[in-house]
């Protein structure tokens, strides 16, 4: 088991250099590499919630955004990321995706990964197992409908984040059995609290410089985050940080003999 497990971990945690089109801005931050996150090896990641996180090197960050899409701010976040040729992961709320399918498609067309964040952002540890599962599945189905035109509870990218990180052992087990990786975070900008973009920038820089790397949580629904983001990306570039884009494993094509 030890040798096999080690080989598996080596494979699923492997990374490859991003093959996206060359960035038109030679001085842009850019996306340094792509990391495939296989839920079998990394069912739960993010040190704020779990004992394990992704194997990021020193000064590597993975950018994640929750609660969108929201037209007034998500479009500005996308513009800031595009200006620096940076790819991120967006954890969408299903009802927002249903209301804004064009933005969902725009997120995907830009090359970003799309994860899932329930249908209506209820605290899943407070509403009972059955209702929580319905929230999860309805959210995934709405995201997939906006993205591909077909509602399904099987996510194209098997990434999920609990609203408020409020999980339960039963829900974690359910998602793991379905091959869906649960994301916490290693650090965050606390952008759910009102503050100026400058205050938020100083806060996240202080936390990142202390931690040295990690999965960072933002909210693309917050105006202060949208205003702060260009300066934060410039800080990353000037100070030698690298952005890692997280993607899910490629779906296994079924054989014609499968039943």
Structural description of this entry:
There is one protein chain. The protein is an alpha/beta fold. It is built from eight helices and eleven strands. It has helices at 2-12, 71-83, 94-99, 101-109, 129-148, 169-177, 197-211, 223-238, and strands spanning 15-16, 33-36, 44-45, 60-66, 89-92, 113-116, 159-160, 181-183, 187-188, 214-219, 242-247. Strands 1, 2, 4, 5, 6, 9, 10 and 11 form an eight-stranded mixed sheet that branches. A three-stranded parallel sheet has the order 3-8-7. Strand 9 (187-188), helix 7 and strand 10 (214-219) form a beta-alpha-beta unit. Helix 2 packs parallel to helix 8 (223-238). The radius of gyration is 18 Å and the shape is globular. The two termini are 30 Å apart. Residues 1-20 and 252-259 have low confidence and may be disordered.
Q: What is the number of helices? A: 8
How far apart the termini lie comes to 30 Å
Q: Report Rg.
A: 18 Å
Estimate the global geometry from the Cα principal axes. Answer: globular
**Range of strand content:** 15-25%
Order of helices and strands: HEEEEHEHHEHEHEEHEHE
How many strands? 11
Mean pLDDT: 91
Unreliable stretches, pLDDT < 50, 5 or more residues?
Answer: 1-20, 252-259
Structural class: alpha/beta
Helix content: 25-40%
Characterize the biggest β-sheet. Answer: 8 strands, mixed
């Amino acid at each position: 088991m030890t040798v096999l497990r080690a080989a598996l971990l080596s494979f699923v945690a492997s990374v490859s250099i991003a093959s996206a089109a060359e960035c038109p801005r030679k001085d842009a931050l850019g996306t340094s590499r792509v990391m495939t996150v296989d839920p079998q090896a990394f069912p739960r990641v993010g040190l704020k919630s779990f004992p394990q996180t992704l194997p990021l090197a020193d000064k590597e960050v993975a950018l994640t955004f929750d609660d969108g899409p929201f037209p007034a701010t998500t479009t500005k976040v996308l513009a800031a990321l595009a200006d620096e040729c940076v790819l991120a992961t967006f954890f969408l709320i299903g009802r927002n995706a249903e209301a804004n399918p064009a933005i969902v498609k725009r997120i995907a067309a830009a090359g970003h990964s799309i994860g899932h964040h329930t249908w209506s952002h209820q605290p899943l540890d407070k509403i009972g197992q059955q209702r929580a599962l319905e929230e999860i599945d309805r959210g995934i189905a709405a995201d997939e409908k906006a993205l591909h035109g077909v509602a399904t509870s099987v996510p194209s990218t098997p990434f999920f984040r609990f609203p408020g990180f409020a999980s339960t052992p039963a829900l974690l087990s359910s998602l793991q059995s379905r091959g869906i990786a649960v994301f916490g975070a290693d650090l965050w900008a606390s952008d759910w609290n009102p503050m100026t973009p400058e205050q938020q920038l100083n806060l996240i820089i202080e936390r990142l410089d202390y931690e040295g790397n990690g999965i960072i949580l933002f909210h693309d629904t917050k105006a202060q985050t949208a205003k702060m983001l260009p300066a934060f990306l410039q800080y990353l570039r000037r100070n030698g940080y690298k952005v890692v884009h997280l993607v899910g494993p490629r779906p296994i094509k079924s054989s014609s003999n499968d039943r």
